[in-house]
Structure formats: C-alpha cells, structure tokens
Amino acid sequence: MNCGCDSCESGYQELLIPDRGKHLYYRLLASPRSLFVGLSFFFVLVIYIYVSNYRGVTNIYHHNADLLNVSTTAFSSTPTLERKDNVKVKSLLPTIIPPTSWVKYFKQWHGLRLPVITCRPRGRLGNIMGEYATMYSLKRHYNVTVVINNDFKKKIKYIFLNTSLPDIPASAGPFKLQDWTPVQYIGSWNNYAPIELAAAGLLGPKKFVMEKYAFEIQMFHQFKEELRKEFTFAPNYTTKANGFLSNIMENRSSELPDPVFVGFHIRRTDYKKFIKNRYGSHLPETAYFTRALSHYRTKFPDAAVFIVASDDLQYARSKLDQYHDVFFSPGFSAGEDMALLASCNHSIITVGSFGFWTAFLAGGEVVYADVTTKIEYRFSRKMFEKIGLDYFIPLPVD
Question: Which residue spans traverse the membrane (predicted)?
Fold first, then answer.
C-alpha cells in the first residue's frame, strides 16, 4: 500500500501477484501464440494494483475522515498503514503512529539526532503560526529534532519573543531547500500524515522540510497553554493593544459594569473567492454578525464591548459602525491586529487561520461561523467537534 513517501511516489514498491493470477500468467506464456495475451494480462494486472494503491492514498492516513486504527509495518524501508475497520467515530487521535512503531537512529547531522524536521514558511501570519505549532507538537509528541530555518525565522522574530524551537546550527551553513526531503499533505489539504511518518522515523534518518501549509490542530491543541507562551508578543505590540483597550475603559461611563472585551475578526478580500472555488461555500455576513453580537450582549448585558479587526475594514465598518458597543482596530499591521484581539476576553471569528489564532490565544469562549462546505474544511464545525474544542460554539451563518 502506498505511503506517500518518495520511493512509493516513484513507483518503487514490491508488487505481489496473487497465486491464481500467477498460474494463469505462466499458462498464457506457455504457448508462443499466447505471448501477446500474456503480456497484456501482466500489464493490466500491474496497472490494477498500482491504481488500487493510488486510490487508497486519499484515505489511508486521513485524520479528518473516519478515524483509523493503524498498524505500521516496515517493508523495504517503506511503511504501510492499513485500515483495520470502518467504524465512524466522533473524535480524532492527536497522532496516528503508535510509539511501538517508531524507529530511532544513532545517525547525527551537525550534532542533531536524525531525522530533523524544519518548515518552509508558506502563507501569511495565521498560516505561519499554524506551521510553527505543528512543528512544536511534532517535537512534543514524537521527541523528534525540530529546527527553524532563517526563512521561517524572519516571518515571526519581530512579533513573538518566546519561541523556543532552535535555529538550524550555524555549522550547517545557509538553508537550501533542495538539500531537504519535502513532506506535505497526501490526498487532501487536511491530511498531513506523512509528516508524522517522518517524525516517527519511518521515512529514514533524513532532513525533512514541511511544505504546503501544515496546520494540524488535532496535534497541537492539547499544548494550548504552552503555545500561548510561545506566541508571546513583543512589547511594542502588547503596549499598543493595552493602550487601545485602556482608552475604551477610560471613556466608558462609570454607571456601566466593567467591560468584557470580545475580539471580532472578519475575514474578507481574497477569501471570498477562495472559499467559493475550493469549498463551495460563502463568507458569513450580516445575519451571522447580528447573531454573534446578540449572543454576547445577552450573556454580558451592558458589559460586552466588541473590538473588530478585518482585512477589509471598510466593509466591516459598513456593517457594524452603527453600534455604540463596537470599536474598530486601527488596522496598521497583522501583528498589531493579532495582539489586540488576543488581548480580549472572548472571541467571534468567521473563517480562516488568522481568526482561529486570535481566538486560540485569547483563551475565552469562541463563537464561530457554522459554514457548510462541499469538502471538509479545517475551520469548520465538523473539525472543531472532532478535535474536542468544546469552548468553540457554532452559530448559523444564514
């Protein structure tokens, strides 16, 4: 069965011909007149086995489809994960490779035990944070060596101060993508099982680079408090966020109860086209906004104060500017918006990775848009419930 590693993708795997097919194959070749038929049978059989393996790629490891009971077998250095049952469950395991199947090596690279994993930074701030959190969780779950390359470090070093993952050793020289073996999703954007195979040592003592927006919430959500410390904002970000909230408090009537700040992120711009084309869905709009505001106004009468940030502030203002309890972020940078929303007590989010992180870091209750999609979406009710994020509350979008 195809594991998605380089050897399998290139077609290097043992093909086992069933005994019955093998006998028929030899009988066909026994007569010269049957040579063409025999060769045809052989090629059809090989193609059948190959296609069967290829089709299995999309569901062998799938975190976000039916949960699988997994067994691992080393075969010509290629692991095979086999489906054991078809029972549907409501939760996801944080990892899929059991410790009994891990392979450890004594081989080192610049003083680091192999395998070594890094990540090519892809996307904007929310994606980068998801990639970092995924690397962090690989280290915590599998005790694998994880390092940060300079390309990745440049994306976060001015925003977060306490990131603990070490840099690539200086003795290794500049990071060159071509020197690393890529691992990414297999079958769908939600299925990054190959990175776990690499972390467990099942793809060999190599240097691996994570590709294509790895964002494994089911792996890292149990390290929430650790990640909130990892993503400690630099003083200039926290100072601005605290100043913004303090100014609201100072201008608030003394007759009103102490404010409960609710961060509200509205994702727009390119995501409108993306969620339609990729997921057959649409962005939450006025109906959802009204419903979400009402939820917190009911829960915290006269105390709820909403802090809105968006990649389209003009749109957000056109929908929410009429409310006296809604305030808008200055919107100077993604880091400042993230720090401001993360400083709130509770959260409202729409779609996308940025909103997820504002809520994850804020730490309170999270109201999110219950969007309907044609294929499974990472930031959806189905995913959040499988992971066990019970403080995420879905609200209808229409």
Answer: 34-51
Same domain, 218 and 119: yes
Could you say which of 208, 225, 242 is where a domain stops?
225
Q: Which residue has the tokens 């609710």?
A: 262
Q: What number of H helices and E strands is found in the chain? A: 15, 14
Six-digit token string for 274: 């993306």
In angstroms and rounded to an integer, the radius of gyration of the C-alpha atoms of the chain is: 25
Cα–Cα distance between 244 and 177 in angstroms, integer? 41
Please give the DSSP secondary-structure letter assigned to residue 166: P
Q: What are phi and psi of 29, to 5 degrees?
A: -80, -10
CB of 223 closer than 8 Å to CB of 193: no
Question: Does residue 115 have a cis peptide bond before it, meaning omega lies within 30 degrees of 0?
Answer: yes
Query: What phi and psi values does residue 271 have, to the nearest 5 degrees?
Result: -70, -25
| pTM for the structure as a whole | 0.79
The 3-state DSSP composition of the chain as helix, strand, coil percent (nearest 5) reads 45, 15, 40
Domain that holds residue 187: 92-225
* Residue 380: DSSP 8-state: S
Look at residue 376 in the predicted model and tell me its pLDDT.
87
- 186 within 8 A of 203, measured Cβ to Cβ: no
Do the bridges between strand 304-310 and strand 392-395 make them parallel or antiparallel, or are there none, so unpaired?
A: unpaired
83-135 pLDDT, tens digit each = 333 334 467 888 989 999 999 999 999 999 999 999 999 999 999 999 999 99
